[in-house]
C-alpha cells in the first residue's frame, strides 16, 4: 500500500512489469486463431493501481499500462490493433476504478466483503461488457468474417475472468485488507487433504491421463476443492488457489488436454472455460471472505467476553469489600444505639427517683427533659443510619447476585 501511496514511479514500474508478464501469458496461451485471450489478467494490475493510488498519479499507471500492452502484443497483432487494445483496456480499468470507488465510498479501496461485492458487480456488469463493445469491433475491423457478438462475449468474459481471479490477490498482497490473514486452525490430516486432493484432481483433469479416461473425474472436483479451501483457509490462500486453478486449466486447454479441450468449436470451448472459472472464483471468494468475517467476529466476541468476565470479577471483588465495610459500620451503629438506649433509660430512672424532691423540681425537670430530648434525637439518628445501611446491604447483595 505504501508503494502505491508514496512511491508512484516505483509502483508504476511494478505495475508495468506485472501487466507485461500477464499479457505475455494471455497472448501466447489461447486456442483462438484470432488471438483473443481465454483470460486477460493484465487489467488486474492496472485496476489495482488505480484503486490504491491517488488520482493525481493515475497518468503514470496509464502510461505504464500502454507501454506494457505494446510490448506484450508486438509481433502478434498489427500496430493499429495494439493501440486500439491499449485504449480500450485503459478506458475499461479507469472507468471500473472510478465506479468502484464511487459505489464503495472509499479510496484507496479497503477490500471488505461489501466492497468485494461492489467490485465483482462492476466487473461483471459494467466495465468489461462495455469495453467489449469496442474490443470486438477492433477484431471485426481486422477480420470482417468474425461473429461480432461472439467476440464481444469472449472479450467480456475473458477480461472478467482475468480480473476476478487476479485482482483480489493483488489487493490482498498490497495490504488493502486484513481479512486474508485471519488465522484458522487446521489439523494435520486436513492439511494433508488440502495438498493431496488438488494434486489428484489435477492429475485426473489437467494431464494426458484425462484423454485416456475422461470418465474418472469432473471439473466439479476443482470447484468442490476451492469451496473446501474457502471454508477452511484465509482468503489469501483461496485467491492464490483460484489463480493457480485458472492458470493450470488455461495451460491444459491450450495444450489440448482436459474437459474444456474436447470440443471442435474453439469459441465454445473458450466460453465454457471462462464461465467455469468465473463461477468457481466468485464462489470461492465470497465464501472465503464471509467465513473470515465470521471468524473475525467470533474472535472479537471472545475477546469482549473475556474482558467482561474480568470486569465482573473486579466488580464482584469491589462489592464484597463494600459489603464488608457496610457490615462493620452497621455493627458499630448498633453498639452506639444500645449505648444510647441505656443512656435514655438511665435518664428516665433518674427523673423518677428525683421526682419526689420538690425543691428545685422545675429546674431539674427542665434539665432532665432537655437531656431526654437530646437522647431521643440521637437514638432516632442512629436508627435512620441503621435502616439506610440495611437497605444498602440488601441492594449490594441483589446487584452481586
DSSP strand content: under 5%
Structural class: mainly alpha
Write the element-wise H/E pattern from the N-terminal end onward.
HHHHHHHHHHHHHH
User: In CATH, what is the class of the domain at 1-177?
Assistant: Mainly Alpha
Question: What is the residue-averaged pLDDT?
Answer: 83
Helix content: over 70%
State the distance separating the first and last CA atoms. Answer: 51 Å
Choose one word for the global shape. Answer: elongated
What is the tally of beta strands? 0
CATH topology (fold) name of the domain at 1-177: Arp2/3 complex 21 kDa subunit ARPC3
Compute the gyration radius: what is it? 40 Å
Low-confidence stretches: none
**Helix segment count?**
14
The CATH architecture of the domain at 1-177 comes to: Orthogonal Bundle
Major beta sheet, specifics? Answer: none
Set out the fold topology.
Layout: H1 2-6, H2 8-28, H3 42-52, H4 58-73, H5 79-104, H6 113-125, H7 127-142, H8 148-173, H9 188-205, H10 208-212, H11 220-232, H12 235-254, H13 266-354, H14 361-400
Amino acid at each position: 500500500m505504501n508503494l502505491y501511496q508514496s512511491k508512484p514511479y516505483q509502483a508504476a514500474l511494478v505495475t508495468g512489469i506485472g501487466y507485461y508478464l500477464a499479457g505475455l501469458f494471455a497472448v501466447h496461451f489461447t486456442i483462438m486463431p484470432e488471438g483473443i485471450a481465454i483470460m486477460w489478467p493484465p487489467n488486474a494490475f492496472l485496476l489495482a493501481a488505480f484503486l490504491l493510488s491517488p488520482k493525481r498519479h493515475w497518468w503514470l499507471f496509464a502510461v505504464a499500462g500502454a507501454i506494457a500492452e505494446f510490448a506484450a502484443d508486438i509481433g502478434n497483432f498489427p500496430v493499429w490493433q495494439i493501440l486500439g487494445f491499449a485504449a480500450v483496456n485503459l478506458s475499461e480499468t479507469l472507468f471500473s476504478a472510478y465506479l468502484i470507488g464511487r459505489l464503495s465510498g472509499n479510496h484507496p479501496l479497503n477490500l471488505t466483503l461489501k466492497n468485494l461485492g461492489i467490485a465483482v458487480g462492476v466487473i461483471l456488469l459494467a466495465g468489461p461488457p462495455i469495453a467489449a463493445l469496442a474490443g470486438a469491433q477492433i477484431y471485426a475491423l481486422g477480420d470482417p468474417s468474425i461473429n461480432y457478438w461472439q467476440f464481444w462475449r469472449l472479450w467480456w468474459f475473458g477480461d472478467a475472468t482475468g480480473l476476478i481471479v487476479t485482482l483480489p490477490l493483488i489487493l490482498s498482497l498490497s495490504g488493502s485488507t486484513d481479512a486474508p490473514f485471519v488465522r484458522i486452525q487446521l489439523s494435520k490430516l486436513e492439511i494433508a487433504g488440502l495438498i493431496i486432493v488438488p494434486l489428484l484432481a489435477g492429475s485426473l483433469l489437467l494431464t494426458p491421463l484425462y484423454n485416456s479416461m475422461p470418465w474418472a473425474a469432473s471439473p466439479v472436483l476443482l470447484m468442490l476443492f476451492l469451496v473446501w479451501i474457502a471454508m477452511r483457509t484465509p482468503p489469501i490462500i483461496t485467491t492464490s488457489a483460484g489463480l493457480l486453478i485458472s492458470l493450470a486449466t488455461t495451460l491444459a486447454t491450450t495444450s489440448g488436454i482436459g474437459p474444456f479441450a474436447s470440443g471442435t468449436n474453439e469459441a465454445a470451448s473458450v466460453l465454457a472455460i471462462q464461465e467455469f472459472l468465473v463461477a468457481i472464483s466468485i464462489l470461492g471468494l465470497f465464501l472465503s471472505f464471509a467465513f473470515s468475517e465470521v471468524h473475525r467476529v467470533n474472535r472479537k466476541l471472545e475477546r469482549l467476553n473475556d474482558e467482561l468476565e474480568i470486569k465482573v470479577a473486579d466488580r464482584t471483588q469491589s462489592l464484597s469489600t463494600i459489603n464488608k465495610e457496610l457490615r462493620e459500620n452497621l455493627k458499630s451503629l448498633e453498639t452506639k444505639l444500645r449505648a444510647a438506649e441505656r443512656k435514655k433509660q438511665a435518664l428516665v430512672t433518674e427523673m423518677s427517683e428525683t421526682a419526689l424532691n420538690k425543691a428545685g423540681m422545675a429546674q431539674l425537670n427542665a434539665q432532665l427533659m432537655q437531656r431526654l430530648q437530646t437522647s431521643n434525637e440521637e437514638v432516632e439518628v442512629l436508627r435512620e443510619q441503621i435502616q439506610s445501611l440495611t437497605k444498602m446491604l440488601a441492594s449490594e447483595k441483589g446487584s452481586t447476585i
